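Following up on my earlier thread - several people asked me to post the actual chain instead of describing it. Fair enough. Here it is, all 68 residues.
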Amino acid sequence: MTEVLPSAADIGRDVGIINLAIGLPNVLAPVVAAFAVQALGGYAALYLVASALAAIGGILVYRIRSVR
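Reply from S.P.:
Thanks for posting it. Predicted structure:
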């Protein structure tokens, strides 16, 4: 994985960002799910919130530049 990172000098920072991208959703998902189920009206709201977040994630991933 480190061979495709843009700069050899910034490998530590880049791997740290990747680690946050993997770990942060595992921390935030239960909080967002609990809020959606309790405050927004049940599991139907949870599925709507999840689909909106998935769409936003897809748009953000689409904007990632390719490896050169």
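The longest helix spans residues 11-39. That should answer part of your original question.
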